[in-house]
Amino acid sequence: MIDPLHPLLRKAYDPDRFAALGTEVLGDLKRHLEEAQARERSRSMPWVPPEEERKHWERRLAHPKGLPALLREVVDRSNGLQDPRYMGHQVAVPFPDGALVGLVTDLLNNGGAIYEMGPTNSAMEDVLMARIGKAMGLPDGSGGVMCHGGTLANLVALLAARRKRGSEGADAWVQGDDGKGAVLVSDQAHYCVDRAVRIMGWGAAGVGLVPTDGRHSMTRTGLDKAMEQMAAQGRRVVAVVGSACTTSSGAYDDLELTADFAEEHGLWFHVDGAHGAPAAFSSRYRHLVAGMDRADSIAMDFHKIMGVPALCTGLFYKRQDESFLPFTQAAEYLWSDAEDPEWWNFGKRTFECTKRMLSTRVAAVLEEYGAEVWGVLVDRLFGLGEELAGSIGRRRGQGWELAMVPQSNIVCFRLVPEEIAAGRHNAFTTALRQRHLEEGAHYVVQTRFNGAVWLRCTLMNPLTEPEDLEAMLDGFEVLAKEMLNQGWT
Ligand SMILES: Cc1ncc(COP(=O)(O)O)c(C=O)c1O
To answer: Is residue 149 lining ligand 1, measured as CB closer than 6 Å?
Structure first.
């Protein structure tokens, strides 16, 4: 016995209603883009304390007003990444085309894990990973998989490393291991590498932190020292991870040096290029990733400086067949032979089972602009980093300080007027940033290294102009003066 189709379901699947809503929402988004690009909103970052925002949604969600109203409110209350004054975290300011791709792929919902769930998407993924790998300088026979985020890609790459290099005569995937494995990684690396090592059961001591130099890059001496320490602690190092670039300050490890080290010690060489691997597409900045082509695996986020909405990551392998190393599992409802390296059943190689139609998002960028656009983006965003550093340099006499010459679009700096006592620099910077956040015109974040707190910009919006950078610095100067007038010393 089955009920007739419920009116709610009839409404949900009605094509005419869908098209009418779509027209309305697209109109709203066009206006949002125009306002954001014209800097018409008073703020790019509508800062509201978490408890207040939660209360708002507690009240609001109890009184539904319809989808267009809800979406309008989400747009108004969200961070304005499309505003050129957005200089905050490392997520892409997506090409608006990506929203249209999302519209289509979310409706189709042909995600992985296996070919028959999403034939077009799976075939495109295989083609794109080989083609993009080649464009990055990887050799013939390279390829890989797309996945949901750099965090996951780094974990999966280290699982491959563990299986290939980790256990003498035993298969770590089948038998587990003695918990004594280790990975060497920069002391400035993203936390997800440490997380991956702990997930693999090697604990905190399984992470050999490699000391970095004044530019936040690993050195040969640092690598040797970390290797010796791991050996002294009875650890079996299986991999070394190069950061391209680091998260906090955007510093590139010397990947040639890291590759040499990996070869000498028979280690898996993984590059965490979540943020900065696209430098490979820029003739001006390609030198930063020299040696990346020697890596066994590379993680690169399409959703950072490649214009694609989150989450969308490429995990590249120098030898495509090694992408089957991380997992081998039976799943009779999906595939019949666990050992068969069927490229088309991506679930055999990804952490995820179901995943979104990621390859269409990447294909859309290539279809409209070609891989050239990634070099153009890198040049523009890294150029903005140089521009900001130059401007801070010109203001140096007024209390401005640059943490280091930036190598990418991540710039760390601070403004500490001479009236502020040495022991209060961190407290002043933290308070200044909080005031700036609450004022909200420009969205800037903060970080900490070597015990010092720094303001941090990631220049993600290619529509940002030098005048926006000047206005942001001017804004900090006004706030710092106010704080001094209020008695900060
Ligand atoms: C160097 C680096 N690795 C990994 C990650 C994590 O990537 P995701 O946020 O895509 O998981 C980040 C994020 O900022 C990063 O900068």
So the answer is: yes
